[in-house]
Amino acid sequence: MRSFKKTDGLGYEKNGVKAYELAYTASVDRPAKGATEVTGTVTFVRTEHGWNAADVSGETDEQRQAAQQRERDIAERANVVRARQDIRVLESALALYKLDNFHHPSTEQGLAALVNPPDSEPKPVNYKSGGYIQDLPNDPWGNPYQYANPGTRSEFDLFSFGADGKPDGEGAAEDIGNWNLP
């Protein structure tokens, strides 16, 4: 070990046992990779024989970065799943709108026609009291869902631009639409 630095400490007593938790940062020489910084905690407990190390934990920057990347990946997958679910819900509301009114809202009327009856043509003939959804959701990235009727990829296109909020992205920024749902 090249260096060891105490970064924080906490003393406490639990069930009559005195303990001290020490947060640390250490620089460790590893033959294959050189020096690596490790952070963690060491917990000491007081016994009749003195202070004893009860628990030691630590992680390297690489492990921490890998864990953070896994968390970001999981969150991004969750956002994609939510966008797909929202699109399915909006598709169902559009299907009900069409059943009642014999057509989908126009591009100009947009998804707002699912919340309030549109004033422009083509006007709905049997608009459901209270609308077809209570509120229009934004996509998981905070952007409005896009709608076009007629669509270029299906009867109507209903989609999110994905994480980047721009058309034609890749990976997490890929457009998520009613034409590419699993």
UniProtKB/TrEMBL annotation:
Cross-referenced SUPFAM superfamilies: Pili subunits
Q: Where is this region: Disordered?
A: 161-182
InterPro entries, per the entry: Pilin-like, T2SS_protein-GspG_C, Type2_sec_GspG
Pfam families the record matches: T2SSG (PF08334)
Q: Which residues form the Type II secretion system protein GspG C-terminal domain?
A: 75-179
Q: Which NCBIfam families does the entry link to?
A: typeII_sec_gspG
Task: Give the protein's recorded name.
Answer: Type II secretion system major pseudopilin GspG
Give me the gene this protein comes from. gspG
